[in-house]
From TrEMBL:
Residues 17-191 form the DUF4166 domain. This is DUF4166 domain-containing protein. It comes from Methylovulum psychrotolerans. InterPro entries: DUF4166. Keywords: Membrane, Transmembrane, Transmembrane helix. It comes from the Bacteria. The lineage of its organism: Bacteria, Pseudomonadati, Pseudomonadota, Gammaproteobacteria, Methylococcales. The chain crosses the membrane at residues 41-62.
């Protein structure tokens, strides 16, 4: 199992998470898994310029919508890095993609990286049967350096919650809240494991670019 990432990150609390949440991250080296769900994406109009800029670096989807059919594919590489590829299909048939990588840092902390070395530091914990991430600042990594920016300089603090609904379904809530501007971005939806879930060896990690 992918002890290199989530079980290692949350420690002994991993055992308190429901099986449907554990399965979401129990991706072995060279293997993958798929989820499908329907989401709603929302953000206020005055956030358009900043969200547009962030989307240029591969972070956040620059489009609002409801009934957004979403597929999430994950693969793990030999270093224990979890690669994500999210495909979102809007009601008008247009699609958007969001790719990232999750890398272990220390106990309860990982970094999710997008393009050009930009990423977000996340603290991961198990709380009352839910897996909860909270952002601990944004960062840029390159040339052996890491520069950290406080959340309030951008959209605010992100909170991500995954809560089991059944043995095969869970609810995802991703919300960013700024101390001055309130809720600046969110996407929420229910997910289940795809019937065509790929769990065979030889599946290559998905690139960010």
């Amino acid at each position: 199992m992918n002890a290199y990432l989530l079980s290692k990150t949350v420690g002994s609390a991993w055992q308190t998470l429901p099986p449907v949440i554990q399965r979401h991250y129990a991706v072995q080296e060279g293997q993958g898994s798929s989820l499908v769900g329907v989401m709603t994406i929302a953000y206020p109009h005055f956030m358009l310029p900043l969200i547009g800029l962030i989307s240029c670096f591969g972070g956040l989807v620059f489009r609002r919508g409801s009934n957004v059919h979403t597929r999430v594919e994950k693969t793990a590489d030999t270093e224990g890095v979890l690669h994500w590829h999210r495909t979102l299909r809007f009601p008008d048939g247009k699609t958007a993609h969001f790719r990232s990588q999750m890398t272990y840092q220390t106990e309860h902390e990982l970094i999710e990286t997008i393009r050009y070395g930009f990423g977000i530091r996340l603290r991961a914990e198990a709380e009352d049967g839910r897996l909860v991430y909270r952002s601990q600042g944004h960062c840029w990594q390159g040339a052996g350096l890491r520069i950290t920016l406080p959340d309030w300089l951008l959209l605010g603090t992100a909170t991500i919650s995954e809560q089991a609904l059944s043995a095969d379904n869970f609810r995802l809530d991703f919300t960013i809240r700024h101390p001055w501007w309130g809720e600046t971005y969110s996407y929420r939806g229910d997910f289940r494991y795809a019937k065509t879930e790929v769990e065979s060896k030889g599946m290559k990690p998905l690139p960010i670019a």
